[in-house]
Amino acid sequence: MTTAGAVERVFRQSTGPILATLTRAFGADRLDLAEDCLADAVELALRVWPVSGVPANPRGWLFRVARNRALDVLRRERTLRAKLPLVAGDVPEADDGELALTFLCCHPALPRASQVALTLKIVGGLGVREIATALLAKESAVAQRLVRAKKWFRESGEAVEVPTALEARLDGVLDVLYLLFNEGYQATTGELVVRRELCAEAIRLTRLLTADPRTDRPRAGALLALQLLQASRLPARDEVLLIGEQDRTRWDAALVREGARVFERSCAGPELSAFHVEAAIALCHTAPAPDHRRILALYDDLLAVRPTAVVRLNRAIALAEVDGPRAGIAELAPLSAELAGHLPLPVALGALHLRAGDTAEAARHYRHALTLPCSEPQRRFLRQRLAACG
Question: Is residue 36 a part of any domain in this protein?
Answer without folding.
Answer: yes
